[in-house]
Write a structure and sequence with these properties.
By secondary structure, the protein is of the alpha/beta class. The protein has a domain of 238 residues: Rossmann fold. It contains twelve helices and 13 strands. Strands 3-2-1-4-5-6-11 form a seven-stranded parallel sheet, sandwiched between helices. Strand 1, helix 1 and strand 2 form a beta-alpha-beta unit. Helix 1 packs parallel to helix 2. The longest helix has 21 residues. Its EC number is 4.2.1.46. This is Putative nucleotide sugar epimerase. It is an enzyme of class 4 (lyase). One of its GO terms (molecular function) is dTDP-glucose 4,6-dehydratase activity.
Protein backbone atom coordinates (compact mmCIF):
# COMPACT_ATOMS: atom_id res chain seq x y z
CA UNK A 1 0.00 0.00 0.00
CA UNK A 2 1.39 3.39 -1.03
CA UNK A 3 2.10 5.65 1.95
CA UNK A 4 0.62 9.15 1.78
CA UNK A 5 3.11 11.98 1.63
CA UNK A 6 3.31 14.14 4.76
CA UNK A 7 1.43 17.42 4.70
CA UNK A 8 3.65 20.51 4.62
CA UNK A 9 2.77 23.90 6.12
CA UNK A 10 4.49 26.98 4.65
CA UNK A 11 4.21 30.29 6.48
CA UNK A 12 4.84 33.35 4.34
CA UNK A 13 3.39 31.49 1.35
CA UNK A 14 2.69 34.70 -0.59
CA UNK A 15 6.34 35.72 -0.23
CA UNK A 16 9.16 35.38 -2.73
CA UNK A 17 10.64 32.14 -1.41
CA UNK A 18 7.42 30.75 0.04
CA UNK A 19 5.44 30.92 -3.19
CA UNK A 20 8.27 29.38 -5.23
CA UNK A 21 8.62 26.56 -2.69
CA UNK A 22 4.87 25.89 -2.71
CA UNK A 23 4.85 25.50 -6.51
CA UNK A 24 7.82 23.13 -6.38
CA UNK A 25 6.26 20.95 -3.69
CA UNK A 26 2.90 20.85 -5.46
CA UNK A 27 4.57 19.74 -8.69
CA UNK A 28 5.80 16.71 -6.75
CA UNK A 29 2.33 15.85 -5.40
CA UNK A 30 2.79 17.10 -1.85
CA UNK A 31 -0.13 18.40 0.17
CA UNK A 32 0.77 22.01 0.94
CA UNK A 33 -0.96 24.37 3.37
CA UNK A 34 -0.01 28.01 2.95
CA UNK A 35 -0.60 30.89 5.32
CA UNK A 36 0.26 34.58 4.91
CA UNK A 37 -1.14 37.81 6.31
CA UNK A 38 -0.42 39.65 3.02
CA UNK A 39 0.75 42.76 4.83
CA UNK A 40 1.53 46.03 3.05
CA UNK A 41 5.29 46.12 3.62
CA UNK A 42 5.34 46.05 -0.20
CA UNK A 43 2.63 45.71 -2.86
CA UNK A 44 -0.18 43.42 -1.73
CA UNK A 45 -1.27 42.97 -5.36
CA UNK A 46 2.17 41.57 -6.16
CA UNK A 47 1.79 39.04 -3.35
CA UNK A 48 -1.66 38.10 -4.61
CA UNK A 49 -0.22 37.51 -8.07
CA UNK A 50 2.23 35.07 -6.55
CA UNK A 51 -0.68 33.26 -4.94
CA UNK A 52 -2.42 33.16 -8.33
CA UNK A 53 0.67 31.48 -9.76
CA UNK A 54 0.39 28.79 -7.10
CA UNK A 55 -3.26 28.20 -7.98
CA UNK A 56 -2.30 27.83 -11.65
CA UNK A 57 0.40 25.27 -10.85
CA UNK A 58 -0.07 21.51 -11.32
CA UNK A 59 -2.02 19.70 -8.57
CA UNK A 60 -3.08 22.90 -6.77
CA UNK A 61 -6.79 22.03 -6.94
CA UNK A 62 -6.06 18.74 -5.20
CA UNK A 63 -3.22 19.53 -2.82
CA UNK A 64 -3.24 23.29 -2.07
CA UNK A 65 -4.98 25.06 0.82
CA UNK A 66 -4.42 28.72 1.67
CA UNK A 67 -5.48 30.83 4.66
CA UNK A 68 -4.93 34.54 5.17
CA UNK A 69 -3.77 34.71 8.76
CA UNK A 70 -0.85 36.14 10.70
CA UNK A 71 1.63 34.08 12.68
CA UNK A 72 1.22 36.71 15.42
CA UNK A 73 -2.29 35.35 16.06
CA UNK A 74 -1.69 32.28 18.21
CA UNK A 75 -5.31 31.09 18.21
CA UNK A 76 -5.53 31.13 14.43
CA UNK A 77 -2.19 29.34 14.13
CA UNK A 78 -3.33 26.59 16.49
CA UNK A 79 -6.59 26.23 14.55
CA UNK A 80 -4.62 25.63 11.34
CA UNK A 81 -2.42 23.03 13.03
CA UNK A 82 -5.48 21.37 14.54
CA UNK A 83 -7.25 21.21 11.18
CA UNK A 84 -4.40 19.98 8.97
CA UNK A 85 -1.95 18.31 11.38
CA UNK A 86 1.12 19.16 9.26
CA UNK A 87 4.11 16.87 9.70
CA UNK A 88 6.59 19.31 8.14
CA UNK A 89 6.57 23.05 8.87
CA UNK A 90 8.57 25.61 6.89
CA UNK A 91 8.53 29.01 8.58
CA UNK A 92 9.34 31.73 6.05
CA UNK A 93 6.98 34.38 7.45
CA UNK A 94 8.86 37.31 8.93
CA UNK A 95 9.16 41.05 8.77
CA UNK A 96 11.95 41.38 6.24
CA UNK A 97 14.43 44.11 5.42
CA UNK A 98 17.46 45.46 7.25
CA UNK A 99 16.80 49.16 6.61
CA UNK A 100 13.09 49.03 7.47
CA UNK A 101 14.02 47.78 10.95
CA UNK A 102 15.42 51.26 11.64
CA UNK A 103 12.03 52.82 10.87
CA UNK A 104 9.60 50.31 12.33
CA UNK A 105 11.31 48.10 14.93
CA UNK A 106 8.04 47.02 16.56
CA UNK A 107 7.03 45.09 13.43
CA UNK A 108 10.12 42.89 13.84
CA UNK A 109 9.39 42.10 17.47
CA UNK A 110 5.80 41.13 16.68
CA UNK A 111 6.44 38.98 13.62
CA UNK A 112 9.97 37.68 14.05
CA UNK A 113 9.85 36.99 17.78
CA UNK A 114 6.22 36.68 18.92
CA UNK A 115 5.13 35.08 15.65
CA UNK A 116 8.09 32.71 15.63
CA UNK A 117 7.31 31.73 19.24
CA UNK A 118 3.73 30.89 18.22
CA UNK A 119 4.98 28.58 15.46
CA UNK A 120 7.36 26.85 17.89
CA UNK A 121 4.52 26.35 20.37
CA UNK A 122 2.35 24.83 17.66
CA UNK A 123 5.16 22.52 16.54
CA UNK A 124 5.51 21.37 20.15
CA UNK A 125 1.78 20.86 20.70
CA UNK A 126 1.06 18.99 17.46
CA UNK A 127 4.06 16.65 17.23
CA UNK A 128 5.61 18.11 14.08
CA UNK A 129 8.22 15.75 12.61
CA UNK A 130 10.42 18.37 10.95
CA UNK A 131 10.74 22.15 11.34
CA UNK A 132 12.60 24.29 8.79
CA UNK A 133 12.93 28.03 9.33
CA UNK A 134 14.47 31.00 7.57
CA UNK A 135 17.46 32.63 9.15
CA UNK A 136 19.75 35.08 7.37
CA UNK A 137 23.36 35.78 6.47
CA UNK A 138 22.88 39.05 8.36
CA UNK A 139 23.47 37.17 11.64
CA UNK A 140 27.21 37.27 10.86
CA UNK A 141 27.12 41.03 11.45
CA UNK A 142 30.34 42.84 10.71
CA UNK A 143 32.34 39.64 10.59
CA UNK A 144 35.41 40.28 8.43
CA UNK A 145 36.49 36.64 8.24
CA UNK A 146 35.40 35.06 4.96
CA UNK A 147 33.92 32.80 3.88
CA UNK A 148 31.27 32.82 6.59
CA UNK A 149 31.02 29.44 8.32
CA UNK A 150 28.20 28.30 10.55
CA UNK A 151 30.45 28.22 13.63
CA UNK A 152 31.72 31.79 13.12
CA UNK A 153 30.62 34.37 15.66
CA UNK A 154 27.03 35.44 15.19
CA UNK A 155 26.52 37.24 18.47
CA UNK A 156 27.20 40.78 17.28
CA UNK A 157 24.30 41.73 14.96
CA UNK A 158 24.41 45.22 13.48
CA UNK A 159 20.66 45.52 12.81
CA UNK A 160 17.52 44.64 14.72
CA UNK A 161 16.50 42.38 11.83
CA UNK A 162 19.71 40.37 12.26
CA UNK A 163 19.19 40.24 16.02
CA UNK A 164 15.72 38.74 15.58
CA UNK A 165 17.05 36.12 13.16
CA UNK A 166 19.80 35.09 15.57
CA UNK A 167 17.17 34.98 18.30
CA UNK A 168 15.13 32.58 16.14
CA UNK A 169 18.10 30.23 15.97
CA UNK A 170 18.48 30.21 19.75
CA UNK A 171 14.76 29.78 20.33
CA UNK A 172 14.58 26.88 17.85
CA UNK A 173 17.58 25.23 19.48
CA UNK A 174 16.01 25.38 22.93
CA UNK A 175 12.67 23.99 21.70
CA UNK A 176 14.46 21.25 19.81
CA UNK A 177 16.28 20.26 23.00
CA UNK A 178 13.30 20.55 25.33
CA UNK A 179 10.62 19.00 23.11
CA UNK A 180 12.59 16.82 20.68
CA UNK A 181 11.63 18.82 17.58
CA UNK A 182 14.00 18.18 14.63
CA UNK A 183 14.86 21.69 13.41
CA UNK A 184 16.97 23.21 10.65
CA UNK A 185 17.78 26.91 10.35
CA UNK A 186 18.79 28.14 6.90
CA UNK A 187 20.93 31.25 6.63
CA UNK A 188 19.98 32.65 3.22
CA UNK A 189 22.43 34.79 1.27
CA UNK A 190 20.84 37.52 -0.93
CA UNK A 191 18.18 35.53 -2.78
CA UNK A 192 17.17 36.86 -6.21
CA UNK A 193 15.21 35.78 -9.28
CA UNK A 194 11.72 36.02 -10.84
CA UNK A 195 9.02 37.34 -8.50
CA UNK A 196 11.69 38.66 -6.14
CA UNK A 197 10.97 41.14 -3.39
CA UNK A 198 10.51 44.70 -4.74
CA UNK A 199 12.50 46.14 -1.83
CA UNK A 200 15.66 44.18 -2.69
CA UNK A 201 18.51 45.44 -4.89
CA UNK A 202 17.88 43.32 -8.04
CA UNK A 203 14.28 44.54 -8.40
CA UNK A 204 15.16 48.12 -7.42
CA UNK A 205 18.04 48.20 -9.90
CA UNK A 206 16.04 46.63 -12.75
CA UNK A 207 13.15 49.01 -12.24
CA UNK A 208 15.48 52.04 -12.18
CA UNK A 209 17.37 50.93 -15.30
CA UNK A 210 14.19 50.31 -17.30
CA UNK A 211 12.69 53.67 -16.26
CA UNK A 212 15.98 55.61 -16.51
CA UNK A 213 15.92 56.56 -12.86
CA UNK A 214 19.07 56.97 -10.74
CA UNK A 215 20.34 53.97 -8.74
CA UNK A 216 21.63 54.64 -5.23
CA UNK A 217 24.85 52.65 -4.85
CA UNK A 218 25.92 52.64 -1.23
CA UNK A 219 29.46 52.57 0.17
CA UNK A 220 30.47 54.09 -3.17
CA UNK A 221 30.08 50.75 -4.88
CA UNK A 222 32.52 48.90 -2.62
CA UNK A 223 30.02 46.19 -1.73
CA UNK A 224 29.97 42.47 -2.46
CA UNK A 225 27.05 40.10 -2.16
CA UNK A 226 26.75 36.33 -2.37
CA UNK A 227 23.75 36.37 -4.74
CA UNK A 228 21.81 33.09 -4.62
CA UNK A 229 19.30 32.16 -7.31
CA UNK A 230 15.77 31.30 -6.16
CA UNK A 231 15.68 27.80 -7.73
CA UNK A 232 18.78 26.81 -5.76
CA UNK A 233 17.22 28.07 -2.54
CA UNK A 234 13.97 26.19 -3.17
CA UNK A 235 15.82 22.95 -3.91
CA UNK A 236 17.83 23.34 -0.71
CA UNK A 237 14.70 23.85 1.41
CA UNK A 238 12.87 20.97 -0.26
CA UNK A 239 15.70 18.54 0.43
CA UNK A 240 15.92 19.67 4.05
CA UNK A 241 12.17 19.05 4.38
CA UNK A 242 12.76 15.37 3.79
CA UNK A 243 15.92 15.04 5.87
CA UNK A 244 15.19 16.05 9.47
CA UNK A 245 17.98 17.05 11.79
CA UNK A 246 19.45 14.40 14.07
CA UNK A 247 21.52 14.45 17.23
CA UNK A 248 25.23 14.16 16.57
CA UNK A 249 27.03 11.27 18.27
CA UNK A 250 29.92 13.50 19.27
CA UNK A 251 30.35 17.20 19.90
CA UNK A 252 32.82 18.71 17.45
CA UNK A 253 34.44 21.82 18.92
CA UNK A 254 35.20 23.04 15.39
CA UNK A 255 31.57 22.86 14.36
CA UNK A 256 29.41 23.52 17.41
CA UNK A 257 26.39 24.78 15.45
CA UNK A 258 25.96 21.51 13.61
CA UNK A 259 27.14 18.86 16.02
CA UNK A 260 25.18 19.55 19.19
CA UNK A 261 25.15 16.37 21.26
CA UNK A 262 21.76 16.98 22.89
CA UNK A 263 19.46 18.68 20.35
CA UNK A 264 18.16 17.77 16.91
CA UNK A 265 19.05 21.21 15.59
CA UNK A 266 21.28 22.22 12.71
CA UNK A 267 22.12 25.43 10.91
CA UNK A 268 23.22 25.68 7.29
CA UNK A 269 24.36 28.47 5.00
CA UNK A 270 22.46 28.65 1.71
CA UNK A 271 24.54 30.68 -0.71
CA UNK A 272 26.22 30.56 -4.10
CA UNK A 273 29.72 31.00 -2.60
CA UNK A 274 30.77 33.34 -5.42
CA UNK A 275 30.41 36.94 -4.23
CA UNK A 276 29.83 39.61 -6.85
CA UNK A 277 30.62 43.31 -6.63
CA UNK A 278 27.52 45.47 -6.95
CA UNK A 279 29.12 47.30 -9.88
CA UNK A 280 29.52 44.00 -11.75
CA UNK A 281 25.97 42.96 -10.87
CA UNK A 282 24.64 46.24 -12.30
CA UNK A 283 26.74 45.86 -15.47
CA UNK A 284 25.35 42.35 -16.05
CA UNK A 285 21.83 43.67 -15.49
CA UNK A 286 22.47 46.53 -17.91
CA UNK A 287 23.57 44.05 -20.58
CA UNK A 288 20.58 41.79 -19.97
CA UNK A 289 18.08 44.67 -20.12
CA UNK A 290 19.84 46.51 -22.95
CA UNK A 291 19.94 49.85 -21.10
CA UNK A 292 22.50 51.79 -19.08
CA UNK A 293 22.03 52.67 -15.43
CA UNK A 294 22.17 56.17 -13.99
CA UNK A 295 24.40 55.71 -10.96
CA UNK A 296 24.35 57.79 -7.80
CA UNK A 297 27.02 56.92 -5.22
CA UNK A 298 26.47 57.30 -1.49
CA UNK A 299 27.91 56.34 1.91
CA UNK A 300 27.35 53.01 3.65
CA UNK A 301 23.93 52.84 5.29
CA UNK A 302 23.38 51.88 8.92
CA UNK A 303 22.85 48.14 9.34
CA UNK A 304 24.46 47.21 6.00
CA UNK A 305 27.42 44.85 5.76
CA UNK A 306 30.13 45.43 3.17
CA UNK A 307 30.62 41.88 1.98
CA UNK A 308 29.03 38.44 2.29
CA UNK A 309 30.44 35.07 1.27
CA UNK A 310 29.05 31.68 2.28
CA UNK A 311 30.75 28.40 2.98
CA UNK A 312 28.12 25.81 2.02
CA UNK A 313 30.14 22.64 2.60
CA UNK A 314 27.92 21.56 5.51
CA UNK A 315 24.77 22.00 3.44
CA UNK A 316 26.27 19.98 0.59
CA UNK A 317 27.23 17.21 2.98
CA UNK A 318 23.74 17.14 4.49
CA UNK A 319 21.52 17.18 1.37
CA UNK A 320 23.95 16.30 -1.45
CA UNK A 321 23.21 19.58 -3.23
CA UNK A 322 25.15 22.79 -3.76
CA UNK A 323 23.61 26.06 -5.03
CA UNK A 324 25.42 26.62 -8.31
CA UNK A 325 23.42 28.80 -10.71
CA UNK A 326 25.93 31.31 -12.08
CA UNK A 327 25.27 35.02 -11.68
CA UNK A 328 25.37 35.35 -15.48
CA UNK A 329 22.62 32.78 -15.98
CA UNK A 330 20.61 33.92 -12.99
CA UNK A 331 20.51 37.54 -14.14
CA UNK A 332 19.45 36.48 -17.64
CA UNK A 333 16.57 34.44 -16.21
CA UNK A 334 15.60 37.31 -13.92
CA UNK A 335 15.84 39.99 -16.63
CA UNK A 336 13.73 37.95 -19.06
CA UNK A 337 11.01 37.56 -16.43
CA UNK A 338 11.23 41.25 -15.47
CA UNK A 339 10.78 42.46 -19.04
CA UNK A 340 7.87 40.10 -19.68
CA UNK A 341 6.17 40.97 -16.40
CA UNK A 342 6.34 44.73 -16.83
CA UNK A 343 5.37 44.66 -20.50
CA UNK A 344 2.00 43.10 -19.65
Amino acid sequence: MKKDKPSILITGAAGFIGSALAIKLLEENNHVIGIDNINNYYSTSFKKERLSNIIKSPNSSKYWNFHKISIENKNQIFNIFEKYRPKIVVNLAAQAGVRYSLENPEAYIKSNLVGFFNILEACKSFDVENFIYASSSSVYGGNKKVPFKENDSSNHPISLYAATKRSNELMAHSYSHLYDIPSIGLRFFTVYGPWGRPDMAPMIFANAIMNQLPINIFNFGKMKRDFTYIDDVVESIKRCCFKPATVSNTFDKFDPENSCSFAKHRIFNVGNSKPVELEIFIELLEDALGKKAIKKYDELQKGDVISTLSDTSLLTKWIDFTPSTSIQDGILYFAKWFENYYEH
